[in-house]
Design goal:
By secondary structure, the protein is of the alpha+beta class. The protein contains 8 helices and 4 strands, in the order E-H-E-H-E-E-H-H-H-H-H-H. It has helices spanning 11-23, 42-45, 66-77, 88-116, 126-150, 161-175, 184-193, 197-202, and strands at residues 2-5, 27-28, 55-58, 61-64. A 4-stranded mixed β-sheet has the order 2-1-3-4, covered by helices on one side. A hairpin with a 2-residue loop joins strand 3 and strand 4 (61-64). Helix 1 (11-23) runs parallel beside helix 3 (66-77). The model has no long low-confidence stretch (mean pLDDT 96). The structure holds glutathione. Glutathione binds at residues 10-12, 33-34, 39, 52-54, 65-67.
């Protein structure tokens, strides 16, 4: 039995929970993080000195960083290289999109989401908000163009780990209240992801 520490509303925890479902893995999910048990607790910091969720415990193995956990689970438990292809070039393309999500895409929406959804009073600067929205849109247009090329998932015809980490970000795109241009390939992609049980349970559950 795996343990995934972290509140199930956290975008980064959701990646891991969805991955567990895709791979048919059983897990406990004690709720740690803001609004739950504090990650400043020495018990938590002994598992992840960075003090962020998620943390995975698999027997005597402890791992943090959500995208790394997703890759670990796919490597360790993904039969027939489900979610993560073995061929170096195919795998590199999946990992490229995972890295793009963790850096370019996540960096783009953070200010806008915190401002408009979390209503954080320290994130209400109009110019910074507009800048965040405009960079976010630029990233989403890159994603739309890629999905138009594949007509299915980010790295090709089948769902991979890249779709899990990008899928949770796409959910933020649709759950943030602001004027969005229609991106047809992203919209179809979001509907396609919505067919997955793991997405329905942990991501498309109405929690922004
Ligand atoms: N790079 C880390 C980021 C993790 C992160 O930012 N986690 C947030 C929740 S999404 C967190 O732990 N915030 C502190 C808290 O909730 O107490 C990852 O991908 O795992």
């Amino acid at each position: 039995m795996l343990t995934v520490l972290g509140k199930s509303t956290s975008i980064n925890v959701r990646k891991v929970l969805w991955t567990c479902r895709e791979l048919g893995l059983a897990f406990d999910n004690p709720q740690w993080g803001a609004g739950h048990r504090s990650t400043d607790d020495p018990e938590f910091l002994s598992l992840n000195p960075v003090g962020l969720v998620p943390v995975l415990i698999d027997g005597d193995f402890v791992l943090s960083e959500s995208n790394t956990i997703v890759r670990y689970l796919a490597n360790a438990y993904g039969a027939d290289s489900a979610l993560l292809p073995l061929a170096p070039r195919e795998r590199a393309l999946v990992e490229k999109w995972m890295d793009w999500q963790a850096t370019e895409l996540n960096g783009a929406w953070r200010y806008a989401f915190t401002s408009l959804v979390r209503n954080d009073p320290s994130k209400q600067d109009r110019a910074l908000l507009n800048e965040s929205i405009s960079t976010w849109l630029k990233m989403m247009r890159i994603l739309d163009a890629q999905l138009e090329r594949t007509s299915a998932f980010v790295a090709g015809a089948r769902l991979t780990a890249a779709d899990i980490v990008i899928g949770v970000s796409v959910q933020r795109w649709y759950s943030t209240p602001f004027a969005r241009p229609e991106l047809p390939s992203v919209r179809r992609y979001f509907e396609r992801l919505g067919e997955r049980a793991g997405f329905q349970e942990f991501v498309g559950n109405g929690v922004p």
